[in-house]
Every structure is written in C-alpha cells, then in structure tokens.
Amino acid sequence: MAPSPELVTAALATVNDPEIRRPITDLDMVKSVDISPDGVVRVGIFLTVAGCPMRDTITRDVTAAVSKLDGVARVHVDMDVMSGDQRKNLQTKLRGDRGPEKEIPFARPGSLTRVFAVASGKGGVGKSSVTVNLAASMAASGLKVGVVDADIYGHSVPRMLGVSDRPTKVEDMIMPPVAHDIKVISVGMFKPEGNTPVVWRGPMLDRALHQFLADVFWGDLDVLLMDLPPGTGDIAISVAQRMPTAELLVVTTPQQAAAEVAERAGSIAAQTHQQIAGVIENMAWLPCPHCDERIAVFGEGGGQTVADALTRTLGSRVPLLGQVPIDLRLREGGDEGKPLVLTDPDAPASAELRRIAAGLSKKSTSLKGLKLDISPTKH
C-alpha cells in the first residue's frame, strides 16, 4: 500500500536545507507531493535561486527520507525556483522585517552568541590555523559555530576548512557555505576564479565587514570566531566599533620579537574598551621524534610575556590559555581542508587546541560589557 500524504510530509520534515539548517517544510520549500497507487512518489521542491549549489544535496536527502517509508517504490524529485515574492517571504521568515540598514545580530543587547576576534601582531604565527581548529573543535562538541574570515587581504579560511562552494544569495540575504558543521564567510568566496588580490581601502573594508556580519544569515550561533588580519589596522578598529562586546584572542609564537608585536596588537583593547579572553602561544615547541624531548625551535616564554604585559596594561588578568606544539599535520590539514582536531583528535597539538576550545566555550559569568535594560530611579 502506498504511503499517505501525511506520512510523506512528515518524512520531508526531517530534511534540512543544507545552508539554512532548518526543515524544508518550515521554509515553504515543498511545492507538491503526488503519490501514485503503485508507490511512486513525486516531490516538487522550490529552490531559493536558479543554479542553487545545494541542488544535488537536497535531491539526495529528499529521496533518502521518502524512500524509507513502507510502500514507496520509487521517488522522483522535481525542482522549481522560488518567485521574487516567495524569496521575500522566506527572508522575512528568517530575519523579520528590518529596515534598509541591517542590524548586526551579535551586537544586539542580550545576544547569546559569544564572539571571539582572533588577532596577532604579525603574520606567520598560525593565527588562521588556530582559528580553524578552535572552530572545528567547538563544532565537534555540539556547538553552533560560525567563522568570519575578516583577513580581507590574506584570506585563507575557505581553503583550511575545505570550502569550495560559493554563498547563495536570497534577495539581499547571503547564505554562508557550511563545512565540518561550521558556517563560513570570506571575501575569497566572492572573487573571480584565480588568486586575484583584493585592493581595497578603509571604507570598503568596513563595509565588507558589516556585510559579513549583517547580510549573512547566521542563524542562532553559540560561538562566532573572526579571523582578523595581523596588526591594528582598519579591520581591527571596525570590529571594535561594530562589535564592542567581541573578546580578543591574541595569538603569538614564543620568540620575543613576535611577542612584542603581539603585545601591541592586544593593547588596542585599552583604547577600544574590549575584553581580552586570553593569549594562545602557537608553535610552542617541537616534540623530538626520537625521545619526545621538547625542542624550543622559536625560543620560550613569548606567550606568558604577552599575557603578563597585557595584564599590566589593562589592569585585569589576561591568562595564557595554552601552548600549542608544532605539528606538521596542522599545516597539511590546512592545505587539505581537514583540521587536525578532526583527523587526529589525540595528537598533542589537537589535545591542546581542544582543551583551549573547551575553556572558551564555557559561558562567561561576568557582566562586564553587557548592556542591561535597566535605568536609575529616584527615591
């Protein structure tokens, strides 16, 4: 006996849109359901845009969900495209009816998303590798995680996470690609094919950052990580202005030259009144392949030096969150789009990154920087 329309609809409710991560039935993406007496089920699906990169994924998931029902002989999936009015209704359903200047959801009073801006004083300290592996570790633990590749000139996060898809645009809302259960956005996804450089000045950088934060549909995230460019330039200032409650994570290597520059990058918090979540020392040592002795390739003590200096500058404790040892597979995983914390979670570098991620994932109990909806009264 062929299944009832109610059973087929219930099966379709288990299929999530790959980009929005909500059931296709909730998003009004199911156009039609036709069931023949001999068990052939034909499902019509509305795609958000023509040429949707998730077309094959949706077809596969719908087919798999409906095929599990008793009495189903075959499943046919027919694709159509939403009209302009349907896309507007979808945007309203997801984001509400907002004005022309979109609000950054993470900057709203009472936002439950914890935002970390990962900074460094100079390039080459592994800031992006740390960002990607922290994000992957948090996502693997069950958190809803997003990553903004705010390093406009040196964007590398898409490669490190293995993202090849481009974002999908629904009206003026951008759906970010997903990799390893992490939502990702980067200027590299909007460039022409090839390694074309981005030649932008301050106002364009600020506008791009605002679009990444406000135009992208992030959904309800637990954590948002922002991979900042090295130094204290335009993007760092824009983050402080647009995301004043973002906490800084300062990445350095052990060598004193890198530590001095990292200290300057972290000291921006004294002027912007941001909090510093802590310091991460990357490339802390190289485990000897023969005796496991720690070889201080880049010296020692840089991370603690930065943490102590920032503590003195800010007048509040800045902790050294961890020391990540050198592992060639961190670099290899970045090139292959496979974070080490996922491919070998027990490696020493992975264990330290996972420990740091677990500490950062804990909700802060401090009220510092949180806007409270109270006002003084006179007695």
From TrEMBL:
InterPro entries: FSCA_dom_sf, MIP18-like, Mrp-like_CS, Mrp/NBP35_ATP-bd, NUBPL-like, P-loop_NTPase, YlxH/NBP35
MIP18 family-like domain segment(s): 8-77
Keywords assigned by UniProt, alphabetized: ATP-binding, Hydrolase, Iron, Iron-sulfur, Metal-binding, Nucleotide-binding
Transmembrane segments: none
One Pfam family cited in the UniProt record for this chain: FeS_assembly_P
Subunit structure comment from the entry: Homodimer.
The protein, known as: Iron-sulfur cluster carrier protein
Species: Planotetraspora mira
